[in-house]
Amino acid sequence: MFKLSRRSFVGAGLGTLGLAAFSPRLLAQDSKDVALQLSWLHSVQFGGSYIAKSKGYWSEAGLNVALNPGGPNAPVDPAVVTGQALIGISAADYASASVEQGAPFKIIGVAMQKNPFVIASLPENPINTPADLVGKKIGMALANTPVLQALCTINNVDINGIEIVPTQYDAAPLVANQVDCLLCWQTDLPVAMAIQGIESVTMLMADHGYAVHSQTYIATEDSLANRRADLVAMMAGEVRGWNDFRADPKAAAALTLEMYPDQGLDLPTQELQAERQVPLMFSELTDANGFGWFTDETVAQNVETLALLGRSVTPDLWDRSILEEVHG
Hints:
This protein is an alpha/beta fold. The chain is globular and about 60 Å long. The strands form 2 sheets. It has a 5-stranded mixed sheet with strand order 2-1-3-10-4, sandwiched between helices. Helix 3 (47-54) packs across helix 10, helix 3 crosses helix 11 (249-259) and helix 10 packs across helix 11 (249-259). It is 42% helix and 16% strand.
């Protein structure tokens, strides 16, 4: 029941008349095929990109953008390194790990201003602060132990006082009171429970010092040097799409089902996921500077948290120059 699979148009006057008779063919000939490699299977998580494609924000700029789904059998990094995708959706921890192994990546934008990891619990036994974890059982994948350790270190909590129970990515152990809480994403297991009428309490780890950029845009150094115009056009479309997403999340959910009817998605879940995704992606920082923005300060916070995850990374991993062109 609760299980999820995770973890611009230009033309006027006579020019428009001249294009009208054969614009589809011209656009098909002139458009450039590029790809955006998503980090997971199709869902409203990538709704802003779906809007950009459906509204023609990329085609107006001469790009025919394929939205390639990710998942267990479609990792992001190889697609970007080999040039199969111009941009990939990743995260700062994954990108830094790849860079340590020699991948020529740069983070050129940050979709989720707040990391979506939460500690989810039930109202009768809530986890409101990291200190509340002591003496509790937490259900999680053992692979995420460094994430929990980082949260504990940042908040001076002894991880040895927390019992880690290996679980599948499923809300059932929490609902059955087999564990006191779960380490999960704000936009999935808590959403699944809410759809079933089960209230949960979510402690967003980003509100307690866990600073790791998520749903980041990565591109290669070669693309930054030689395909800047395409990168700017793709990111400009993303910005427009996500601003539309913010204005009407329910429309984004409906579009997701319309574009990908075979993904087993249902509208209420997608609507709630979209609603809960908005505050993760927009903030005072994006209000002031535009979607996808990051600063030297937020990068420094990421570098510190990534060090706790065992990732040795410098601020050079982030490159804001594409966003600076997009936002003027």
